[in-house]
Amino acid sequence: MKNIDTYDFNGKRVLVRVDFNVPLNDKFEITDDTRIRAALPTINRILEGGGMPILMSHLGRPKDAYDERFSLKHIVPRLSELLGREVKFAPDCVGPVAEEMAASLKPGEVLLLENLRFHPEEKKGDEQFAAQLAKLADAYVNDAFGTAHRAHASTTVVAKFFPEDKMFGYLIENELKHMDKVLHNPEHPFTAIMGGAKVSDKILIIENLLERVDNLVIGGGMVYTFVKARGGKIGNSLVEEDKLDLALHLLDKAKEKNVKVILPVDNVIADAFSNDANTRITPVDEIPDGWMGLDVGPETIKQVREVILNSKTILWNGPMGVFEMEKFAEGTKQVALAIAEATEKGAFSLVGGGDSVAAVNKFNLKDKMGYVSTGGGAMMEYMEGKELPGIKAIREG
Ligand code: AMP
After folding, report:
1. pTM, entire model
2. Pick from 73, 150, 170, 330: CA 20 to 30 A from residue 221's CA?
3. Domain ends where: 172, 196, 218?
């Protein structure tokens, strides 16, 4: 496997799969350029090495055909500004114009290709299409972690055309480094905190983590499937009736593996799914009919905090309650603060998967976490122990 730090880019055209799937407003202005900034180290490394980056990405969800709203041309001005040089733009990602533009690139120049998903072949992982992309360059770098779990042409299939000249960019390298540390080389005690709405979304990741962690904290809406399975009264709380057996199975498995499971003991209940609802604090298994549990309670927060502060490795995925509403945000906030404190004391923390990242951002604690993953679905699948096609395509063959 080649490495971006040591690879000789001099004079080479380098096809780079980036993730420029940024939010645009109705004037096509970028409202958050985090993803573009995240790709800069890789692009700059290629430029400094004397190579010519040819950038490809998807943007939004076009319906397999050109649609101005999803054109990557909207990215050109900001990217040019961030790179401090004018970026050229190919109006189609494959075909004679892209080929001509790629061929005439000079060292120091950057070419951005039009949205890959204007071609249905991209998502199908079409080999001919991948071959057309491959034609543009001498080497391939994948730096789009968020799509690494998809076997698309630009994320996976294209790699086979560069058997000796393919590698990860810095963003993916960084993601893998942190996830591998947690999965394969954690310092103990290792605590996983799993929250969010449903058990069904988290079964595979919980199963995989039970092989590795010392403590498993369960929060969020999925708590009530566990509580009901154990015979508790959950009122109108969120529940997955068809997962009650599974919840018991996970608890048994945890016992077998000597994993300490921390289920909430108390919770904040509400008489409506609303920030204006009446609220009370009750034991987690004594919720009256007509009421629902929407956040963990103060006694639970105390217990969870203690577990977190005694941990050396912490993985957090999914909020503890309905943190989008002020009244039910306290559990999530306190968990985030405890992780920040533990991290400051020397623990390693990894936060990832959709809503926990949103929560960390909401409470302005991103900089206090060890690492915040950029790839929701991809991160989840990697932590489930799956081999991601985009990762495998570079690592093998
Ligand atoms: P996930 O995408 O699986 O991480 O789920 C996140 C969502 O779960 C957030 O939108 C939360 O509002 C929601 N959630 C967390 N706790 C609860 C709860 N007790 N009842 C209902 N929804 C919840």
Report:
1. 0.91
2. 150
3. 172
